[in-house]
């Protein structure tokens, strides 16, 4: 897929000029449609260009994971990591924090590309009506995804539905979060109507739209239900829970393209990535890409340096070649909080590695945590065929198990909800969830379950925010200090400086 992206992008480079270069001066990735959008291939290339932002280093291939996981209880970073990352870890982030700035900037670059497609892919000679509808629907899905990220990070945002092609177009004030959600909902409902359910790896389909809609409604419902500041407009939480359940039900019960994977490790098997049962939508990369963003270094960010060893053998026999950066550390308190029998710890997190002997007179060396291995690390993103520092790593955006938990949380402690949660717990080697829980108790247990099941995938910050649990969990249970930005980050300084409509 990334090779296809690269070949198509080469053909449009002169038209879509260097959106990823010098973005301090160009926060929207200015593009021009002049002499473009004339053929069906132009339309397809523009859509590919819209997708390609997802795998950039500053978005889903690295910085998104830092922005969503490091503030939580599961991950910290190495001592000599950038100050911006340590600010996030301590909830002391400033308005010029580069990681947070990237969450704003790259979402808007993506939005601008989508707006270009939506405005121009109409009535192109030779482009059939069905394909035109599909291209427009995919662009609307992507635009909704970017805006959903923005409101979850920042709250009120600048609402842009037209292409920004010059700095003269950038002056626009913040819109209420409610208006952003209205656009997200509208885009997704229109996309659902014009897409099919067939799988297309690395691209959206009708099921992905329904999955995202379920998450959007759940975020509004739980935020309104728990009194998250800024969601007073959301209104009837019960009605929103019902909508979340409706769309999650379409994914969990009413389609056959994706399903629950009973093997806890199989969803992360790079060799079977194109047919993985649970991966509804991913940001895809390939180890044979030419530049980072086409390939990923995210797995190496988790892998230990291990005294500079070139190769590591994991307890399951997997060989990791090329060594690691040891950038992310799993927090000790989080690691110890797993139930003893939980396979999400024993099989999905590694605390022992073997460094194979390099000569006949040497012996294999075992490194353990705690001890000479500084931190345990997850196996979710590993690529056993990595080439040097280049890996194939599909950052999950929408996963079937996530939507199972969305459904269960939305409907509360029904028989179906318990069955779904217990399927996940059984896969993890755990006993069934305690029966007879009340609605609030049940939903609280599901937030805990999401913390174990979806760890390191980019959900935790948003789950704690939407359930008004940032302080209760991070300070109350894990002893972190939340200084600022608990529920919303400040609008990045670059936007304030370049947009005169924002005070």
From TrEMBL:
Cellular compartment(s): Cell outer membrane
Domain SusD-like N-terminal per the UniProt entry, residue ranges: 93-218
One Pfam family cited in the UniProt record for this chain: SusD-like_3
Signal peptide range: 1-18
Chief subcellular location: membrane
Keywords: Cell outer membrane, Membrane, Signal
Protein name (record): Membrane protein
Source organism (scientific name): Persicobacter diffluens
Lineage per the UniProt record: Bacteria, Pseudomonadati, Bacteroidota, Cytophagia, Cytophagales
């Amino acid at each position: 897929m990334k090779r296809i992206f690269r070949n198509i992008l080469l053909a449009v480079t002169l038209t879509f000029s260097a959106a990823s270069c010098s973005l301090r001066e160009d926060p929207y990735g200015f593009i021009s449609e002049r002499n473009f959008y004339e053929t069906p291939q132009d339309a397809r290339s523009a859509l590919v260009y819209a997708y390609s932002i997802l795998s950039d280093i500053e978005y889903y291939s690295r910085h998104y994971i830092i922005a969503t996981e490091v503030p939580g209880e599961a991950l910290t970073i190495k001592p000599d990591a950038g100050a911006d990352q340590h600010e996030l870890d301590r909830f002391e982030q400033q308005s010029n924090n580069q990681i947070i700035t990237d969450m704003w900037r790259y979402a808007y670059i993506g939005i601008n590309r989508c707006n270009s497609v939506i405005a121009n892919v109409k009535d192109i000679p030779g482009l059939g009506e069905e394909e035109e509808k599909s291209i427009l629907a995919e662009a609307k899905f992507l635009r909704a995804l970017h805006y959903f990220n923005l409101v979850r990070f920042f709250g009120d945002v600048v609402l842009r539905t037209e292409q920004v092609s010059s700095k003269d177009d950038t002056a626009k004030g913040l819109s209420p979060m409610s208006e952003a959600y209205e656009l997200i909902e509208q885009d997704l409902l229109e996309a659902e109507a014009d897409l099919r359910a067939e799988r297309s790896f690395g691209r959206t389909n009708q099921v992905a739209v329904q999955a995202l809609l379920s998450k959007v409604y759940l975020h509004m419902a739980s935020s309104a239900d728990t009194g998250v500041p800024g969601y007073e407009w959301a209104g009837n939480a019960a009605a929103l829970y019902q909508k979340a359940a409706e769309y999650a039900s379409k994914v969990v019960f009413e389609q056959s393209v994706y399903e629950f994977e009973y093997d806890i490790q199989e969803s992360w098997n790079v060799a079977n990535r194109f047919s993985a049962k649970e991966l509804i939508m991913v940001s895809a990369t390939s180890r044979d890409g030419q530049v980072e963003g086409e390939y990923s270094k995210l797995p190496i960010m988790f892998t230990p340096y291990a005294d500079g060893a070139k190769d590591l053998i994991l307890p399951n026999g997997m060989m990791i070649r090329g060594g690691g950066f040891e950038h992310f550390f799993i927090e000790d308190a989080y690691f110890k909080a797993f139930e003893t029998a939980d396979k999400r710890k024993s099989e999905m997190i590694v605390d022992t590695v073997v460094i194979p002997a390099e000569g006949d007179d040497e012996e294999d060396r075992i490194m353990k945590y705690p001890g000479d291995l500084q931190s345990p690390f997850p196996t979710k993103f590993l690529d056993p065929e990595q080439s040097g520092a280049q890996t194939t790593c599909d950052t999950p955006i929408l996963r079937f198990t996530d939507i199972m938990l969305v459904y269960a949380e939305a409907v509360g402690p029904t028989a179906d909800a318990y069955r779904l949660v217990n399927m996940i717990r059984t896969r993890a080697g755990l006993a069934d969830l305690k029966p007879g829980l009340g609605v609030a108790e049940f939903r609280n247990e599901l937030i805990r379950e999401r913390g174990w099941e979806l760890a390191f995938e980019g959900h935790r910050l948003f789950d704690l925010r939407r359930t008004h649990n940032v302080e209760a969990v991070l300070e109350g249970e894990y002893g972190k200090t939340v200084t600022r930005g608990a529920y919303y980050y400040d609008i990045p300084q670059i936007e304030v400086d370049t947009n005169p409509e924002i005070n």
